[in-house]
Write a structure and sequence with these properties.
Helix content of chain A: 25-40%
Oligomer: homodimer
Radius of gyration of chain A: 16 Å
Shape of chain A: globular
Largest interface: A-B, 34 and 34 residues
Strand content of chain A: 15-25%
Strand order of the largest sheet of chain A: 4-3-5
Amino acid sequence: MTKQRKLIIGIVNSSRNHPTAAEIYSEARRMMPSIAVGTVYRNLKLLTNAGEIRKLSFPGQPERYDRIEHPHGHLYCVACGGINDFDISPALRDEILAHAGERAISCDVTIDYLCDACAGSK
Amino acid sequence: MTKQRKLIIGIVNSSRNHPTAAEIYSEARRMMPSIAVGTVYRNLKLLTNAGEIRKLSFPGQPERYDRIEHPHGHLYCVACGGINDFDISPALRDEILAHAGERAISCDVTIDYLCDACAGSK
DNA sequence: CGAAAATTAGGAATGATTATTAATTTCAAC
DNA sequence: GTTGAAATTAATAATCATTCCTAATTTTCG
């Protein structure tokens, strides 16, 4: 458990923006200017595999990282690529997970939509 | 509507494997050896924007393309990265889409799980 | 047919991510 | 607290997926 790793965990867990690796790197440099980009990527992968954080994929943009907390889904604006969260009830979550039987681990629900800003500007 | 575009539409619509751009290119070359990789990417983007095919994103792998048919969700094996489909009832789909209000367009439901093969080999 | 517009092939360029390597840091045992 | 092996780091090169560029070809449609 190095200080670099602690810093990266802290950034992801205190962020509400689903940051990309580049954004995490940029934020990390503010606290530790000598940190290397490879260190950020390696630790993000390590933490993801360890189940401490979650990786999110959206079309046409770099991977994003999310903390693990009460289950939530994502709203993906097809116009601007912005991402917001929405709450998923445990009941709905269980209903979805039932489709994969015993071996289900978790689920990601993403709704493509038009966000307020993009809908307003048309 | 060029022959290249027709070929690419045909490959995606006749495939049940959520192929990547590289796989589509490779298949396309079998029918038309002179086709260029840039042509495949450009047409896939065009067809996606036109709503004729659908783009899927999964962590750690290139983008995949899927035909548009009766709504279905995806099972993503966290061990091998393999992807399978599962059916989603219209009722469940509507229940999910309700979370985004009027401006919802579509939804992607992905369940992380262990596929039969990966669960068996442990 | 013939000209304008769109598309293509080929390859260079870009951006995100991973691999490499020598130097530094961590951590448990003394 | 010192020590030394194992893990980790910084820096940079390399790789992979995807996009951009340009001249040549094809399509469209009057």
